[in-house]
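Handout, section B. The chain below has 217 residues.
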Amino acid sequence: MIYVGIFGSHKMMIDCISAYVSAFSELKIVTATSSKDTLFDKLKQYTVHVLVVNLFEISTSEQNFIVDLKLKFPKLKIVLLTNANRSEDVIKSIKAGANGFITMGAGGEELIQAIYSLRSGHDYYDNSIAQILMNRRANDIDKGIDNDEESADALSSRQVEILRLWGNGCSNQEIADKLFISIRTVETHKNHIMQKLNLKSTVDLIKFAIKNNIIKI
């Protein structure tokens, strides 16, 4: 069972997210609130594995809120569901401690994938955010900032194929359809890739794929 918390400033969004998440038997909502005080109290009283935070913008105060959450509850995994998609907002949120980032234009299945990925110990970013991070990484490479030492030789041909499709913007469902495998198998392959390369986040995976010419910018 994965214990989920939901926080946001608008009750309608909280209710919609709660209804969607509740449809999955392996997910249990521990708290769904718009009050920061209530949220902190619940996090102290109960186990919450993944916290979904719905923000319409990412201000300095919201970034500080994320930092505060991670300081008080370091094991808590946080996924942001937001309209904000500026590069600087994404980077600052990651640095503040967010483990996942999904834009409002993504489908509900993205949120569920994010929850499972975060619970498995991996970060999660939807395709639009992954593109922002890839562009950021490409700029770093242009400036000569490149400290990766991993090699693509460690991956099987199927793993390279999955990584290439994902890097080119395919969702897990699209990858599964193209390769005639299940979504769960796709997710398992991605987790094995992370483990094999000793990578901790999707950002690291993007850096690896660009450096090894698996995906092109």
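Note. The longest helix spans residues 127-142. Compare this with the example in section A.
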